[in-house]
UniProtKB/TrEMBL annotation:
Residues bound to Ca(2+): 17, 75-76
Organism for this UniProt entry: Rhabdornis inornatus
PLAT domain location: 2-114
Compartments, as annotated in UniProt: Cytoplasm
Matches recorded under SUPFAM superfamilies: Lipase/lipooxygenase domain (PLAT/LH2 domain), Lipoxigenase
SMART domains: LH2
GO molecular function, a single term: iron ion binding
Name of the protein in question: LOXE3 isomerase
Any one Gene Ontology cellular component term annotated for this protein: cytoplasm
Length: 219
């Protein structure tokens, strides 16, 4: 019996967690594990740990499969990364950083940077081919007008996959944060101040501790 320790991290952005069921399959060079349920509840910025029991050693873990399914309502999940510790203590990292939506299975390669010629296993070659085909399907191009650069063949950014929209989601979050901070500074008298600061400590009273340290490092 071989026991693998698995840690799954959820992203820290708003609504990154899910109440849908998530399970995992470990794929090694010698074989793969059975599908093992991780949890039915994931909170933003939190980690879940579990043990995956296998009848034999799987060898080096080359990729993982994350399975998502729902009982009733759809609840998208943003997976940050997965870490797998083998029985011999070897740690494998699987950076994910993507949304899982609907009933789906996502394969994630081990995080070591490798070229095409480094893929000796057939399963890794097939994964690279499928990933390329998915990217070609997602990024289809069209000519907007004669003489103009080519652009994505969509009418709206909302037609794109959620993972392609990710930068837009983050931009909206930053915009909301800036509006909140601006309102806070206005109410505290920061934006209406007509005189110079008396000291650096006075400036720190406006900002958070982290922002205060940043200001102190720059002055």
């Amino acid at each position: 019996m071989a026991v693998y320790k698995v840690t799954v991290a959820t992203g820290d952005m708003v609504e990154a967690g899910t109440k849908n069921s998530i399970s995992i399959t470990l794929v090694g060079s010698y074989g793969e594990s059975r599908q093992t349920t991780i949890s039915f509840l994931f909170l933003p910025g939190k980690e879940k740990s579990l043990s995956v029991h296998c009848e034999q050693d799987l060898g080096p873990i080359v990729l993982i499969r994350l399975h998502k399914w729902r009982l009733f309502l759809e609840d998208a999940w943003f997976c940050k990364d997965v870490r797998v510790t083998a029985p011999n203590g070897t740690l494998y990292r699987f950076p994910c950083y993507q949304w899982l939506e609907g009933v789906t299975t996502v394969e994630v390669r081990e995080g070591s940077g490798k070229k095409l010629v480094d893929d000796k296993l057939q399963i890794l070659k097939e994964h690279r081919h499928q990933e390329l085909a998915a990217r070609q399907e997602a990024y289809r191009w069209k000519n907007f007008a004669q003489g103009w650069p080519r652009c994505l063949n969509v009418d709206s950014v909302f037609e794109l996959d959620s993972n392609i929209q990710f930068s837009r989601i983050r931009a909206n979050s930053f915009t909301g944060f800036l509006i909140f901070q601006g309102a806070s500074h206005f109410l505290s008298g920061f934006l209406l101040r007509r005189t110079s600061w008396n000291s650096l400590d006075e400036m720190r009273t406006i900002f958070s501790r982290t922002q205060g340290r940043d200001i102190g490092g720059c002055l």
